[in-house]
Amino acid sequence: MTLPADPQPPAHAAETPGALAGVRVLDLSRVLAGPWCTQTLADLGADVIKIERPPGQRHPGGDDTRGWGPPFLKDRDGHDTAEAAYYLGANRNKRSVTVDIATPAGQALIRRLAAQCDVFVENYKVGDMARYGLDATTLLQLNPRLVYCSVTGFGQTGPYRERAGYDYAIQGLGGLMSITGERDDLPGGGPQKVGVAVADLFTGMYATVAILAALRHRDATGQGQAIDMALLDTQVAMLANMGANYLASEVTPRRAGNAHQNIVPYQVFEAADGHLILAVGNDSQFAKFCDVAGLPHLAADPRFAKNADRVRHRDTLVPLLAGTMRGRSKHDWLSALEAAKVPCGAINDLAEVFSDPHVLARGMVSQVPHPHTDALRLVASPMKLSATPPTVRRPPPLLGQHTDEVLAEFGLDAAACQALRDEGAI
């Protein structure tokens, strides 16, 4: 099957080599945590080769997220393609190569590629890579400079290591849902997941940091290493102040809705025409807020003057503020509070986010050409580097789009590729 060549990249994409130019990543990860990591590496200039399952009788092939829609990317005629928005959001700047790693020829091909790569990322279940001869021990013997990163739900060790790991279950098991959602004694109370797969995303970002650290070590010593990333470990780590609160007090925190466990007032309030966020972070800001609200006596009240006292008297203070907040519009509050330098914010839906002048000014929406459309819009990388900024050099690839191109770079000619196709390996 002949696939289209890459469309011309944006003019700015070739201006400056990325910070990771020259780093080659072999990416055997799927869905979100692994692809989020490798997309970040790709944004920074690494050459990421995404290995995907070829189409077969029982599977359409490729990363499962290609089919996780609607919505799907629309082509130039306005028709849905096979590229789900979910997939597009985690796979820019990569090249797609189809390899069936369940075949001996496919396994041998992956070993050949790994011998010439800097980084290997996989998120298969514990033991799968060893069965294929693609585990860290095997590949590090083949390429001692390789940085091998495994991403699993529970890690390579421990009693849960063989369990499959899914973000939703990890948010529950790792404690996040016990502190997310409205209070149990209020309407709508109960456990709530976060609106995006934060355990996956954080694991992808921690994996990126670990890989960069391992590359630094490799460049200094010549020695590669294995990295064992687990969603549950990451979820426990990202409990942050809530985890620290428990370890310091052994008091189990409960859900607090939109309120903050350690700061008051730091929550959503209802205004006359909607809701806004008030995020008072210190006593000085509380005094400024009280002036804006026409409640200067509250800042002098010993029950509320210090944050620790406001936390202790939360149930008295918040209803007093809530009544006042409902007396003015969102715009009035936001304008007055911003002028007084009291932290506050609107609660935007995504249409408002992606039309916000500041979001647009910061370049958080990028438009790139794609084989199916001239106007693929993607969320941009948030990293702003002055000398080596991230760029979008390639749109998310079609399935197998770069198979022949990449294999040729590793020394396989057209005849060798055809032989692999005949064996069902690619």
UniProtKB/TrEMBL annotation:
It comes from the Bacteria. Residues 53-75 are annotated as: Disordered. Pfam families: CoA_transf_3. Keywords: Transferase. One of its GO terms (molecular function) is CoA-transferase activity. The keyword Transferase applies. Gene3D superfamilies: Crotonobetainyl-coa:carnitine coa-transferase, domain 1, formyl-coa transferase, domain 3. Residues 53-66 have a biased composition (Basic and acidic residues). This is CaiB/BaiF CoA-transferase family protein. It comes from Aquincola agrisoli. The lineage of its organism: Bacteria, Pseudomonadati, Pseudomonadota, Betaproteobacteria, Burkholderiales.
